[in-house]
């Protein structure tokens, strides 16, 4: 399966909608998108993972890299994920302590933490 990416702006947030699989083959595409957004001045990102079917360690690495990149610009990166099998990966790796994870895009946009 491939990776689909689209972006939209909501207020001062940029929402990155991700679908498909984030793995060793597709993660570079996501990394490219995140780097480009930050370089273009988008420092408050919401990564919508509601349509993600699979996430591996390479994908986690890209998300952590994106978080470091926005934090260097005093920005934020929030995740939207409500699928138990994907949430489990974040819990097992301890990344629930690193990423703010929300149930919906609206909730992530409204969050001020």
* DSSP summary, beta strand count: 5
- Poorly predicted runs: none
Helix count, DSSP H or I runs of 4 or more residues: 4
What fraction of residues sit in β-strands? Answer: 25-35%
Gyration radius (Cα, Å) is 13 Å
Largest sheet at a glance?
5 strands, mixed
Arithmetic mean pLDDT: 96
Choose one word for the global shape: globular
- Helix percentage: 25-40%
Sequence of strands across the biggest β-sheet: 1-2-3-4-5
Domain STAS: 3-112
Protein name: Anti-sigma factor antagonist
Family: Belongs to the anti-sigma-factor antagonist family.
Pfam families: STAS
What does this protein structure show overall?
The longest helix has 15 residues, at 57-71. The protein starts with a strand and ends with a helix. The protein is globular and about 30 Å long. It has helices at residues 27-39, 57-71, 84-93, 105-110, and strands at 3-10, 13-22, 44-55, 76-80, 101-102. A five-stranded mixed beta sheet has the order 1-2-3-4-5. With 113 residues, it is α/β, with parallel strands linked by helices. Residues 3-112 form the STAS domain. This is Anti-sigma factor antagonist.
Q: Concise description?
A:
It contains four helices and five strands; from the N terminus they run ββαβαβαβα.
What layout of secondary structure does this protein have?
Elements: E1 3-10, E2 13-22, H1 27-39, E3 44-55, H2 57-71, E4 76-80, H3 84-93, E5 101-102, H4 105-110
Parallel strand pairs: 2-3, 3-4, 4-5
Antiparallel strand pairs: 1-2
Tags for this model:
113 residues; alpha/beta; 5-stranded mixed beta sheet; 4 helices; 5 strands; globular
